[in-house]
Design a protein that fits this description.
Strand content: 15-25%
CATH architecture: 3-Layer(aba) Sandwich
Shape: globular
Structural class: alpha/beta
CATH class: Alpha Beta
CATH topology: Rossmann fold
Order of helices and strands: EEEHEHHEHEEHEHH
Helix content: 25-40%
Strand order of the largest sheet: 1-2-4-3-5-6-7-8
Number of strands: 8
CATH superfamily: Alpha/Beta hydrolase fold, catalytic domain
Radius of gyration: 17 Å
Number of helices: 7
Length: 242
Amino acid sequence: MPIESERVEYSAGSTVMKSFISKPEKVDFSHPGVLVFPEWWGLTDYLELRAQKLAELGYVAMAVDMYGEGKIASNPADAGSLMNGVLSKMQEGEARVLAAMEFLKDQDEVDANRLGAIGYCFGGAIVLHAARKGWPLRAVASFHGALGPNHQAESGDVQTKILVCHGEADAMVTSDNVLEFSREMDRLGAEYVIKTYPDALHGFTNPATTALGQKYGIPVGYNEAADLQSWEELKDFLGEHL
């Protein structure tokens, strides 16, 4: 499907957010909207590619700037600082997520009643936080994302359908973390699915991850089989719920 893309700006409080929208080229009816939240590096070319791939499937997809002014980290120290700056001030982080949601649903091509979100690593934690908060997203998917709560939800709060895609060899998000998440979702009465991938490390969807892991000595790596399988599972998941 032919697509078109553009960079967009909007505000979250006093911060200018510089995000990226991709959509089908000829839009003659409303399409579901999907927010795409970044790894800790920020809104990189990789995230834009994911938005474009979603647009090719018929979604209006927005790769979201979570750091403001389009900041992108060039090394793990800066990435950690930017990410923790959001996680340590979750009210500001929440405002940025909600601003992105409002901007996307206000687009003429978007059916405001059919919004979803996906996220990678840091972004995976963000979409799960949105689900725990009960925000109006029909479906969210986390890829190699942190699973622990930044918000203690109550039973019935989580109305969003959830997909978690997890690498079995992930040293940053352990099998115990997955079990704790599953118990939490069961307690909340949430509808969720966890997909796991043998031998897949943290960051398994990003082809650039292996080189980054080797350069900085961190246990991350690309896994083509897990990447392709999880993408097919995402397509089925969004197709069912959006």
